[in-house]
Each structure stands twice: as structure tokens, then as C-alpha cells.
Design brief:
The structure holds two protein chains of two kinds. By secondary structure, chain A is mainly β. In chain A, 0% of the residues lie in helices and 54% in strands. In chain A, the strands form three sheets. In chain A, strands 2, 5, 6, 10, 11 and 12 form a six-stranded mixed beta sheet that branches. In chain A, strands 3-9-8-7 form a four-stranded antiparallel beta sheet, with no helix packed on it. In chain A, a hairpin with a 5-residue loop joins β10 and β11. The N and C termini of chain A lie far apart (41 Å). By secondary structure, chain B is mainly beta. Chain B is 0% helix and 57% strand. Chain B is built from no helices and eleven strands. In chain B, strands 2, 4, 5, 6, 9, 10 and 11 form a seven-stranded mixed beta sheet that branches. Classes of the chains: A mainly beta, B mainly beta. The interface between A and B is medium-sized, with 26 and 27 residues.
Chain lengths: 117, 112
Amino acid sequence: AQTVTQSQPEMSVQEAETVTLSCTYDTSESDYYLFWYKQPPSRQMILVIRQEAYKQQNATENRFSVNFQKAAKSFSLKISDSQLGDAAMYFCAYSYLYNNAGNMLTFGGGTRLMVKP
Amino acid sequence: DTEVTQTPKHLVMGMTNKKSLKCEQHMGHRAMYWYKQKAKKPPELMFVYSYEKLSINESVPSRFSPECPNSSLLNLHLHALQPEDSALYLCASSQEVRAEQFFGPGTRLTVL
């Protein structure tokens, strides 16, 4: 079974500084995707960034980047130049195609990020 | 149109009521999902529809009944719910060959 672990229940960062959120996962699959989703107080789940397992290059999306270590099964998210609007719950998620029926998402427990002005 | 919409935003119902949640997407996605999310917890998958057919049911009680009338629409019919069913219900969609799921804003359900 696939599991996703986020070991940091809460993190805080000063505005304009950089913070890294950790995520590890366990799988025997070779073809999968990894995501970071953001859920602000409004509760809307917003896709932040995706990484395909077959790609060695780390994904980046503006101020957001990942450090994908496939052998170590690690997938951390770095947020640069943190902004007040980055305050949210962040979920790491593992995705794989399940019996051609759809993409199954397994979520980690989440990390609550607080941004201090 | 790159969004998933859900109605209603909030719903309060008694344990004997019958109600429905609605989800709509116009992105041409062929897979749609229902999740349940309790406070401070990650979403839990309930159902997956692929090409309008129910493909995954994660052992959800029969008081939750999903329906996919067409490729853009997904309903969740609720009947005889329990107070512990109070939660945020999220709908999502994706293309089968691509892994991103796009989420709607959710329906906050309270069962009295």
C-alpha cells in the first residue's frame, strides 16, 4: 500500500524568507506522480506543483520548487520569498493510475504553514 | 472554463432528510471524484467515476449514493445521514492520462 508521511504538523516562516516542507512516501510502483496541494482557510484545494516520477529534473513553479529524491522516496517543497497569502495547510499527495479506473490520490497528514509579517 | 463548481456551499440537514450535492466541470475530464474531509485531516476518497461509470467505491455506507448523469455532472445523494457524516465534501476531476485532480470549493455539510 502507498503511504505518504509529512513529519512537520506545523511550520512558520517570516515573510520574504524561505521555508521547506518535508514529505516522504512509500511505494513499489515505478510510474507515479507527486503533488503539493495548498488548502487555505477557504478550504479550496489548490494544486501548487507536480512532479512526474520518470523526470529527474525538479519541478519549479515561480516561487515554489521541489527537491525530488526518487531513491530516498522524498519530495520536499521549497517556498521562496514567502508571502502572507502562502499561509495554508499544505498536503503532499502521491498519485497512481488504479486499474485504469482513475488516478488515486493518497494524501499525507498535512503541514500547517504560518507566515509572520 | 478551468474550474469545478459545487452546490450548495453549505447544507444543514436532519437525519431523516434526503438531499443532494452537485458537482460540475466543463474541462472535458472523464474522471470525477468525491472526497470527504474532516477538520484538520486530509481528504478521504469516497467514489471514482470514469467515463460516467462508477469504477471505485471505497467501502462507503449506502446512505451515500453517487450518480453521474453525464460526463460533466456528478451528484451525491444523501439519505438518513448521521451526525458523524458532518464534513466538507469535495468534488474533483481529472483526465485519465494526466494525474492532476482539480478540486471544487466543497460543500460544508452539517447533520443535526
